[in-house]
Amino acid sequence: MRLGFPGAGGRRSSWPRKTCATAYHFIGEEIIVSLQDIVVYLEDLPEGQSRLEYAAALAARFHSHLSAVFVADALELHRYSGFAVGTGIAHMFAHHSEQVRAAAARYRTLFDAALLQEELHGDWRISDRVWGEDLMIHARHADLAVVGPADGPSRRKTPLSLSEDMIFASGRPTLLVPSAWRSDRQADHIVIAWNASAEASRAVAGALPLLYSAKQVSVVVVPQAGLPVPDGIDPGKAIVRHLGCHGVVADLFTLEGSEAGHIVLDFCIERDADLLVMGAYGHSKLSEAIFGGATRYVLRHAEVPILLSR
């Protein structure tokens, strides 16, 4: 019995459309598994529309259900706002509420148009929580969460950015889309940054449907960066063998150097990669996100979408 993943990219492109209630199928001797439920988080930012279009194209590739969560921006008061009284405060809140309603309506129209264009089923939600458990709950009932970059000019004034919060707290694979990424460029060439860690293993498991539908998969290993090498096991060859058991053919690249994040991103640029899969090493506190060196570098400098798990 072989495990497979339907999708575009040359393999399994002709499988019929399915609903999210049929994520596991027995067809002959195969079990077919796919991304059946995707959620995209939207904010009122210039790159919001392209992120929505990217998520819709991804959902169309796997015939997935697509949910959109519009994250209503919290009102940020200036430190001198306390001098505003009476009708001034009321006007301030009324103006902000109207801006939020207008932005939500604009994105709802864009979302409905994307569903129609890609022939998708989906649902629309609005959250007035910009971080924390109330926001994570949407991702925990999905196969994949699509968000924006972790640290950009529009980063929110909250303890963690939305993307950092999602990586640490959602418990689901998180796909970060750079602000300038073209929405029509999907994951045909996927690079796996492999260091044999638990986080990297979970990232690969979460990315299997994408890996199966890709046209090219490259595994990058940087031994000098601290890759554990147990006796008798070559981690790079071991993960390539494991992927082969799932029907994914991958090329192995062992690269020299100690700065794993820099090396992996350079490889992605040189090989024109469409997606980077890696584990997110680190931990979070209420006031900050503490990432490992390679993860921190990639989050700050990546110009390619990243799928992370921890």
TrEMBL record:
Domain UspA intervals: 253-309
Source superkingdom: Bacteria
Pfam families found in the cross-reference section: Usp
InterPro entries (alphabetical): Universal_stress_UspA (IPR006015), UspA (IPR006016)
Family: Belongs to the universal stress protein A family.
Name used for this protein in its record: UspA domain-containing protein
Organism: Sphingobium baderi
Lineage: Bacteria, Pseudomonadati, Pseudomonadota, Alphaproteobacteria, Sphingomonadales
